Amino acid sequence: xxxxxxxxxxxxxxxxxxxxxxxxxxxxxxxxxxxxxxxxxxxxxxxxxxxxxxxxxxxxxxxxxxxxxxxxxxxxxxxxxxxxxxxxxxxxxxxxxxxxxxxxxxxxxxxxxxxxxxxxxxxxxxxxxxxxxxxxxxxxxxxxxxxxxxxxxxxxxxxxxxxxxxxxxxxxxxxxxx
Length: 178
Known about the structure:
single chain; 5 helices
């Protein structure tokens, strides 16, 4: 069967039902949830480029993008038309990577590792635990425009990849009608 298939099956059987229970649509490894305003939150399980037939690792990427941000990206030519409704986590205005809680060195990025069917199942269960404990609530909060703005202005680290000045992004959102 092979190690990559073990993770794919575990994501389908364990993570998929959990994210769908929280209103997400899609199939492994990416699920999206769209608010009534068209804002999108994304959950993606990214497999390592260095996975082999014998072992693998993965990490979870999260993103939230207000509809005006996605429209702006399309108009700027930074995104293909179909991507506006199906952005990847890295195309979102807010972005975060979820790691295993067992990371020893806080300055070294830790990924979940698996090597057989039971370990892939454990990884999928750990991902669901992480999402349930913190991240579903965070993503839902970020789909509320006022909360999105509050976190932006408070310096939420999910906005760091866009620069140091949150007021600049806030001004951009206001000019886009938010």
